[in-house]
């Protein structure tokens, strides 16, 4: 039974095509070869050939492959052509992954390169690129002449011998000899029927050739984009004359090339090659076992055109509609029409006034993207990045996963939010890696003139921080958002809502995510893939501003004057910038995972799923956040027990090695910066030898070390010291950045160097420590729980209870692993402590105890990783007695806590400057409210509502909240946790 694709009125009839192909074949054959394709409808005659016929085909193949055909790519370029190639094509981006894919296909079988539209310039480019990258050159291309004298000779021979071998037969002959060929599917501005007649005989011949041989034929679609602009919705007169932007004639192709050449020179972007997924014809034919060669060739054309269409969409995006048209479409949506009608009834306004209000809201929200503005931003940012940063490290495999998903789904990008630069990073990366730039949800505070209109033209759409008291605004925003996702534009939003001032991710906000979840649940969006992304910085440009805000100063409203202060940062390097992608989350799979019926979901189920999904996204961002050299240095310097003391180089490197060894243990998904990975890899042999020298008696992770050990003496060496020394040069560069910023003081440079953290810089340095502290949370909480007991032998159940209390205490500080049971995480961490030799688990069943034979420096080190947070919470808890009688305004309370904390620092009653962190103190208040210890009161203010707190009536008995305070104090001051 034949399998046939759905066909429109304009599609060719398979039988007619089969007859035409049969006639074509006979015209192709030389007179000394028999006609073998009679009765092409019979599958056996398509596959089975006599030995004599096979031999004659091979003879023809030998004859045709002996000399290059007139369309064959040049096997070498002379001096002038090489110069011309470098001049014309040096700026074209041909990524390594595409080159590797073509090389792999050539190793596994025979390659047929395929492009949508015939182009001599594109063919010349690929000739240049294939020579440069040592890829198989095409020995044939349809309807194209590279060697005019050879073409003339072929015509003469054909006339004299009266034997004419047409293109499909030539292509088959070369494939039999495992030679690469090139196939254009259409000429510019061709009509549908002409396009089929132009290339379908070649596709038909490919199918037949594959049926007759075992070696796989790989048909590889290639896309070369000179201009990243989608096709117009309606062709203009110029388009009719010279071709469209993506299917141009010769004149327009030349104009496009000249334009991209000068734009590349000014960093406005660059042309790029995209290699689509190769189609293995052997596997392709297995998918359609009942299809004859004619039907299979039609299916192959449909597959090729769909893949090329998907690649074009991923890179160019959909054909954009004017903003005014988008506005009309959004306001005409039934959901918004109904909301406007209800608003009119409720407010008493006439429908025209309500519509004007909705139009005004749309104008406030909507982006108005312009390719020119994106190019200008690209050029500007190229200068900025490499002025203040040493470059970008982009997770290219992760970006490729995003590209794959973008072919068939709406993509939602959810990056971390640590700097104003975040708004620009992903657009820059996507543009330069050949993906459609995202529409970005930006706070309405960034819509100020003149930068607001520029951001809007670069793809930003603006969202208010609160929808409170609004009934029309959220509907306009939701309908606009759904419309953008329906068009398959990538959408980027910051789930934290605001920039993190601490370096640690903020608990998620649910508004936009909830809109997307409900749009998907209602069937208005078919497929959504959510991509958690970490955007990290070795140094951020706002650290001074953040320090002031952490210490209680009010956040300054963004303005042009404020942003113009940025140039002062252009005078110093800030290290590297990192972009990491986690696995995309398929929303359909997520619904199924939790057993939620997408067609008839309950509101409560959607609410719970949104919250769970938001926390999952934050956890995944944390998981892929790059550990930078500055983060490692900051952690070691801040973990010094004596905050005013210096630390020697040997100890610094050993503690760095301790952190690295901990984070590179099997099963820990930690991503180190490229420089750290390369440094460790360069010394991997020595580290492996060190492990082999101590196979049994060396604990997996240890802070004990011999400061005077010879690096070549494996008997006295430690893995941690070896790993620290391996990254020493990378760490020195990080220390130099801190020293230049007057945050670290270095004395006696060299092996005897010592490093002192400047007291005023602790908050700024803590920012970088907080970017990796989440990797140590389970260990830090357990170590803190152990330290809170006075005894060296702790009942396991009491230790678990104390650790659980700490875990719940910091529910607003860290996101824990999704669906991970606390007891499993606790036991896994405790087993690690035991395997490391830090504790012993003794007894059985309910009698099990945890024994600590001697004080372990490792436990104290891990405890100090989280101790600043315990200290901050204790500062707030100690003020509960002031909230018993009357409510205290929140901002005044926080300022007072910080002021009293500074006094305690001067008296050395507080261990860490960085404990005085406004966001952490606010989280402590939020926790007390969540636990019902305090209640929240609000009252109107001049600019915003005033928030106050008072101890809840149920907790006003002094004994009750005193017990809570005592438990937190016990974690700070080790003793009996009771």
From TrEMBL:
UniProt entry keywords in alphabetical sequence: Acyltransferase, Membrane, Transferase
What topology in the membrane does the UniProt record assign? Peripheral membrane protein
- This one is known as Phospholipid/glycerol acyltransferase domain-containing protein
Q: Where are the transmembrane segments?
A: none
Q: Please give the family membership noted in the entry.
A: Belongs to the GPAT/DAPAT family.
Q: Give GO BP annotations, semicolon-separated.
A: CDP-diacylglycerol biosynthetic process
Q: What is the lineage of its organism?
A: Bacteria, Deltaproteobacteria, Bradymonadales, Lujinxingiaceae, Lujinxingia
UniProt lists compositionally biased (Basic and acidic residues) regions at: 1-21
Annotated GO CC locations: endomembrane system
- Which residue ranges are recorded for the region named Disordered? 1-28
Database matches in CDD domains:
LPLAT_DHAPAT-like
PANTHER family hit by this protein: DIHYDROXYACETONE PHOSPHATE ACYLTRANSFERASE, GLYCEROL-3-PHOSPHATE ACYLTRANSFERASE
């Amino acid at each position: 039974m034949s399998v046939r694709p759905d066909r429109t009125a304009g599609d060719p009839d398979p039988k007619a095509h089969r007859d035409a192909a049969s006639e074509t074949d006979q015209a192709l054959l030389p007179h000394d070869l028999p006609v073998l394709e009679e009765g092409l409808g019979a599958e056996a005659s398509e596959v089975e050939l006599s030995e004599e016929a096979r031999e004659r085909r091979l003879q023809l193949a030998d004859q045709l492959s002996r000399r290059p055909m007139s369309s064959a790519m040049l096997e070498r370029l002379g001096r002038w052509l090489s110069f011309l190639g470098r001049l014309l094509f040096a700026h074209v981006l041909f990524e390594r992954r595409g080159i590797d894919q073509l090389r792999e296909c050539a190793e596994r079988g025979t390659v047929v390169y395929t492009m949508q539209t015939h182009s001599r310039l594109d063919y010349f480019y690929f000739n240049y690129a294939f020579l440069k990258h040592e890829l198989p050159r095409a020995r044939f291309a349809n309807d194209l002449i590279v060697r005019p004298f050879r073409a003339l000779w072929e015509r003469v021979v054909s006339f004299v011998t009266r034997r004419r071998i047409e293109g499909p037969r030539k292509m088959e002959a070369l494939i039999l000899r495992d030679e690469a060929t090139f196939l254009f599917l259409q000429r510019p501005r061709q009509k549908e029927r002409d396009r089929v007649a132009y290339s379908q005989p070649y596709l038909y011949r490919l199918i037949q050739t594959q049926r007759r041989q075992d070696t796989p034929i790989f048909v590889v679609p290639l896309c070369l984009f000179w201009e990243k602009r989608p096709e117009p919705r309606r062709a203009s007169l110029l388009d009719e004359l010279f071709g469209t932007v993506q299917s141009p004639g010769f004149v327009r192709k030349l104009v496009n090339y000249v334009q991209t050449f000068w734009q590349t020179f000014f960093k406005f972007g660059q042309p790029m090659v995209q290699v689509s997924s190769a189609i293995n014809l052997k596997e392709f034919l297995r998918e359609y076992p009942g299809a004859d060669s004619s039907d299979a060739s039609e299916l192959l054309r449909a597959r090729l055109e769909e893949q090329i269409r998907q690649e074009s969409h991923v890179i160019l995006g959909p054909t954009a509609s004017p903003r005014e048209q988008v506005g009309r479409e959004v306001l005409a949506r039934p959901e918004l029409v109904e909301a406007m009608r209800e608003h009119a009834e409720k407010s008493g306004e006439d429908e025209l006034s309500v519509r004007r209000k909705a139009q005004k809201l749309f104008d406030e929200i909507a982006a108005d993207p312009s390719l020119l503005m994106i190019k200008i931003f690209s050029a500007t940012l190229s200068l900025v990045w490499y002025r203040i940063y040493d470059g970008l490290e982009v997770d290219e495999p992760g970006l490729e996963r995003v590209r794959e998903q973008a072919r068939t789904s709406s993509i939602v990008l959810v990056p971390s939010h640590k700097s104003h630069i975040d708004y620009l990073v992903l657009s820059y990366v996507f543009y330069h890696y050949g993906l459609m730039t995202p529409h970005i949800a930006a706070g309405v505070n960034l819509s100020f003139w003149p930068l607001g209109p520029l951001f809007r033209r670069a793809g930003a759409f603006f969202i208010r921080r609160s929808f409170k008291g609004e009934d029309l605004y959220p509907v306009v925003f939701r309908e606009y958002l759904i419309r953008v996702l329906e068009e398959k534009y990538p959408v980027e939003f910051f789930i934290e809502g605001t920039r993190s001032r601490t370096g640690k991710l903020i608990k998620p906000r649910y508004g936009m995510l909830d809109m997307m979840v409900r749009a998907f649940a209602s069937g208005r969006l078919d497929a959504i893939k959510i991509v958690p992304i970490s955007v990290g910085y070795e140094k951020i440009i706002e650290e001074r501003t953040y320090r002031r805000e952490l210490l209680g100063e009010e956040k300054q409203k963004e303005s042009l004057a404020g942003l113009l202060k940025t140039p002062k940062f252009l005078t110093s390097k800030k290290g590297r910038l990192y972009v990491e992608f986690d696995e995309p989350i398929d929303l359909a799979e997520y619904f199924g995972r939790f057993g939620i019926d997408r067609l008839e979901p309950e509101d409560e189920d959607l609410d719970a799923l949104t919250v769970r999904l938001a926390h999952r996204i934050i956890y995944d961002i944390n998981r892929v956040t790059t550990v930078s050299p500055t983060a490692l240095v900051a952690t070691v310097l801040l973990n010094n027990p004596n905050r005013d003391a210096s630390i020697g180089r040997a100890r610094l490197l050993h503690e760095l090695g301790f952190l690295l060894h901990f984070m590179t243990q099997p099963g820990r998904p930690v991503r180190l910066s490229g420089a750290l990975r390369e440094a460790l890899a360069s010394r991997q042999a020595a580290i492996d030898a060190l492990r082999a020298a101590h196979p049994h008696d060396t604990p997996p992770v240890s802070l004990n070390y011999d400061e005077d050990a010879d690096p070549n003496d494996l008997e006295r060496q430690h893995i941690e010291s070896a790993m620290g020394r391996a990254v020493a040069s990378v760490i020195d560069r990080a220390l130099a950045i801190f020293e230049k910023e007057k945050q670290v003081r270095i004395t006696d440079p060299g092996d005897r160097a010592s490093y002192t953290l400047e007291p005023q810089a602790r908050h700024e340095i803590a920012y970088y420590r907080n970017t990796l502290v989440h990797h140590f949370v389970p260990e830090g909480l357990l170590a803190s729980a152990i330290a809170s007991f006075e005894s060296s032998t702790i009942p396991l159940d009491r230790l678990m209870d104390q650790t659980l209390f700490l875990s719940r205490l910091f529910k607003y500080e860290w996101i824990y692993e999704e669906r991970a049971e606390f007891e499993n995480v606790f036991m896994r961490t405790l087993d690690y402590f035991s395997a490391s030799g830090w504790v012993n688990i003794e007894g059985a069943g309910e009698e099990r105890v945890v024994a600590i034979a001697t004080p372990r420096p490792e436990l104290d080190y891990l405890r100090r990783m989280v101790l600043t947070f315990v200290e901050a919470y204790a500062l707030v808890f100690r003020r509960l007695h002031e909230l018993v009688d009357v409510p205290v305004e929140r901002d005044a309370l926080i300022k007072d806590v910080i002021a009293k904390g500074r006094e305690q620092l001067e008296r050395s009653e507080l261990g860490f400057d960085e404990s005085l962190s406004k966001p952490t103190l606010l989280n402590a208040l939020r926790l007390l409210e969540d636990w019902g210890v305090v209640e929240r009161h609000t009252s109107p203010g001049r600019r915003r509502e005033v928030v106050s707190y008072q101890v809840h009536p149920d907790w006003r008995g002094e004994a009750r909240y005193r017990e809570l305070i005592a438990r937190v104090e016990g974690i700070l001051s080790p003793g009996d946790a009771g």
